[in-house]
Amino acid sequence: MRSPTIKLIQKALIRLLGILLVLCLAWLWVLLAAKPALAQDNTINYSNTHLENRDFSHANLVGGVFVAAEMREANFQGADLTNAILTKGVLLRANLEGANLTGALVDRVTLDEANLKNAILQEAILTRSRLFDADITGADFTDALVDRYQVSLLCDRADGVNPVTGVSTRESLGCR
């Protein structure tokens, strides 16, 4: 006959082995199912490329990467650039009319003389970006992060209502 102490030790070992087995299976499941947070299938990457005068009109560029891309006079009319990364890009005189830039990172981008008519820039980050003489008629900047100085310049010429969101440009920029 076994002593009660040995029975308790055996039960404790069986429970411990069961817990270890469950933990190992959970760890294996997490390891096999894990994907990077921003991983995307078919991510478009145009970093450090020359895309002058390129036609991207009505293209699906969701999550596209355009870091330090030269995009002077490129046509992005009606393109879906949701969550795109455009840092350090040059979009001088580019056409972004009706483009969807919701959640896009537009940091340190030159958008001088760009056409942003009816563009949607909700929750976009436009820090340290230049928008001198850009046409922002009907653009929606709701919850976008824009430098105060740029906002004051944009408010001087903000006009119109975005036909998709129904939000006025002045209201979305917080103009007074």
Order of helices and strands: HEEHH
Tell me the number of helical segments per DSSP (H or I, 4 or more residues long). 3
Strand order of the biggest β-sheet: 1-2
Beta-strand residue percentage: under 5%
Written account of the structure:
The protein is mainly alpha-helical and 176 residues long. The protein is built from 3 helices and 2 strands. It has helices at 4-33, 148-155, 169-173, and strands at 125-126, 145-146. Strands 1-2 form a two-stranded parallel ribbon. The chain is elongated, with a radius of gyration of 26 Å.
Short description:
The protein has 176 residues and is mostly helical.
Which descriptors would you attach to this protein?
2 strands; 176 residues; mainly alpha; 3 helices; two-stranded parallel sheet; elongated
Task: Please describe the topology of this protein.
Layout lengths: L3 H30 L91 E2 L18 E2 L1 H8 L13 H5 L3
Parallel strand pairs: 1-2
